[in-house]
Each structure stands twice: as structure tokens, then as C-alpha cells.
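User: I'm putting together notes for a lab meeting next week and I want to include a structural view of one of the chains we've been expressing. I don't have a solved structure, so I'd like a prediction I can at least talk through. The sequence is below, exactly as it appears in our construct file.
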Amino acid sequence: MERRSRVLVVAIVVAFIAFLDGAVINVALPAIEAELGGGLALQQWAVDAYLLTLGSLILLAGSLSDSYGRLRIIRIGLYGFAATSALCAMAPDGLVFVIGRGLQGAAGALLVPSSLALIIATFPAAQQGKAIGRWTAWTTVAFLVGPLLGGLLVDLVSWRLVFWINLLPIAFALVFMHALGRDAPNPAKERIDWLGASLGVVGLGGTVFALIEQGRFGWSSPVVYIPLVVGLVALIAFVWWEHRAPQPMLPLSLFRARNFAAGNLATLFIYAAFSLGPFAITIFLQEFAGFSATAAGLATLPPTIMIVLLGSWFGGLSTRFGPRIFMTLGPITAALGYLLTLTVTTEVSYWTQLLPGIIVMGLGMAMTVAPLTAAILGAVDPARAGIGSAVNNAVARIAGLVAIASIGVIVGTQLDVTGFHRAAIATAGFLVIGGIVSWIGIRNPVHTAATTAREPARD
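Assistant: Thanks for the context. Below is the predicted structure for the 459-residue chain, given as C-alpha cells.
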């Protein structure tokens, strides 16, 4: 096999590992909580510990990849993901499990940006688009098979197998990478923004801890308000430092482009909804409606299938007509889907009360994702597309992190019918705000459709 084909296979498998873990976890949460205890808070931490380290370290990981070599960082990430997957699988209690998930997110942060950077470094410019398209198509499969695979493993064996199964693709990737050798030395290593990374982790960690644990201790407890204050101060310090750092982890100059700034603000609300809504639906179906993990995984598949089938079509329409209308109507359509699920009663009927809304929300998501990505990446210079993509990826992960952390504030201590209704309304609210931000902030390119795909949007 030629080197480029081998690199593409490695990049796909490496990203697939990280994405699959995120897609599997939701259906396993009730089984994890049933064995380890901890209630809704443990379920929140199971998702957020991973997203916390993934979202806050992904930009740092991109810098490490540029400085120390893509293959080296990928190997470190794979070994780390294997070790932390085993730790999660063997966790005797909730605390060890959550620590394992946090460490697993840190390892995952090393995988995704490095896999894309490896493609960009290996393929010539004329072939990068096709290679990245194949990478996207295959990694999307993780979101299709994840819920079903996770459900089957939980129902037939144990939730612990959800983490043990990671070792198989990791072993394949490590063996397959052997023929690629090692990275050439990089004489122009950039200074790593360790201070920025530390401030980001402390800022997000303190804030998320307060949001999750307030349900147990209350806002007036020093266990909650001290981490909250420390976290908010650290986030302010992070922005200040990134503004003056010689080689910042987050180049704030990117936000001078109107579509980049508005697109990422819209991403914050839209991807908060994309995390909160499926989280609430999956747990509600299992803990209240009595669905098995496999059935819950199947029940939540339609939106992912619609994104795969319709995403490219809406992306083409966005190139022709501009992203603004799709970034506005898409989130609002998805919001309508969540509002349709408010017909759910204590006698849950998936086919009449949930499926119509799930299909509508899937249509809205398919309408949104490709135009949103195109608008953001089209707003930055092509030479900075890598860091632009990493920033948007981090914003999406952080949005999900905060949304899951806030679910206790939104629904209370359990996802019964009343709690689910509150979650659906909150999710719809986030989506509507995202649509409004897009309508106000996004500007379509003023050129013809032929040049729209090549030139960035005007500020």
C-alpha cells in the first residue's frame, strides 16, 4: 500500500476511535449509574469529564502536533487512549471512572487534530479536499454505529465492554502505523502556550464543577461557589493572556472576520443544543420509558442518518445560495422538532409522540451542519484553515460540556416527563438563539456561486 493511502487509513481509524467513544457513551449511562451509583451527577460527569479535557486541550494538541510531529503525538494519544479505556472499564467506583474519563479526553485531544494535520502534511493541495472528504465520510460512520453498538454491548454483555472494545482499533492503528516510520525532526518548533492551556482547563473545570455539583451542595456552599469564582477568573485571565501571548493557543485575531466570530457564537448555542437534546432523550427513554440500551440507540439514529443522507445536498445549496438562510432556518427547524416532543406523556409512545419530532429535528440538523462549517472555514485565510477548524471544534465541544453540566439546573434531579419537557424547551431555546445569531451575524459572499466556494466571506 502506498504511503498516502496508509496515512489516510491511519487518520480515519484514529479519528474514528475518538468519535466512536463520544457516540457510544450516552446509551451506556443508565447502566453505568445503576452499577456505580451517583445518580444524574455521575451521568453528567461521565460525559463532561471527557468533554472538559478534550475541549480545553484540543488547541494545545494541535500545537504539540506541529512542534513534535503528527505521528509521535498520534502514537502517544493511542497508547494513552488504550490505558484510560482500560481504566474506565475496570473502574470500581464512580470517582475512578470519572478520573478515567477525564484522562481519556486528554488522550482523545491528541488524536483528532493530529489525524487531520497528518492528511494535510501528506497530501498535495489538489488532493486534500478529496482526502478530507473521505475522512469525514468514514468518521461519520462512528456516529451511526456508536449508539447501536453501545446498546448491544450494554444489553448483551456489560457497559464495561464499551471501553474494552476500544483496544481493538487502537491495536490495528498502532500496527498499521509501523510502516510510516517516525517524524522528521522539526527545527522550527513553536513555543507551546502552556499557561493558556492551564488557564483554559482551570476555567472550564471550575465552572463545570459548580454547575454539576450545585444540585447536591447548593449555590451557597463554598464547595460550589469557590470553584465557580476561580473558574470565571481563570477564563477572564485566559482571554487576557491569549490577547498578549507571543504565540497564543487561541489566536484572537481570527475573530476579526465577521463570519468566523458570528459562526462560532452560533456554534456555541447550536452545539449546546446538539449535546443537551440527545443526552436528555437517551436517558429519558431508558430510565423513564423502559427502553433497552439497544432500543434507545436505534431510537436516536434518525437525525444522524439524515445528516449523512442530506448533509452534502444542503452543503451544495449553501454554496449556491449562501449559508445564512440555512444557518437560520436549520436551527429553527430543529427547535420545532424538539417542541413537537412536548406531546410526550407518562404513557410514552415513541412512534406518535417522539419520532415525528426526532425526524423534524434531524432535518434541521442536516440543514445546519455543512453550511455552518463552510461559513466558518470560508471566513479565514486558507493558510489558517487548520487552526480555524480546531477553534470551531473546541467551541462545539465546550458548548456541549457546559450544556450537559447545566442539565441539573434545567431539569432538576431526574429526567421524568416534566424534566424532559424542560430539557426539550431549553434545547429549542438554544437552537432559536443560534438561528437568530446566524441571521443577524452571518453575511453571504457577494460573488457568484463559482467563486463562493473559493473565497472567504467579507467582514
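A couple of points you could mention at the meeting. The mean pLDDT is 88. Residues 262 and 441 are 5 Å apart (CA to CA).

User: Perfect, that's what I needed.
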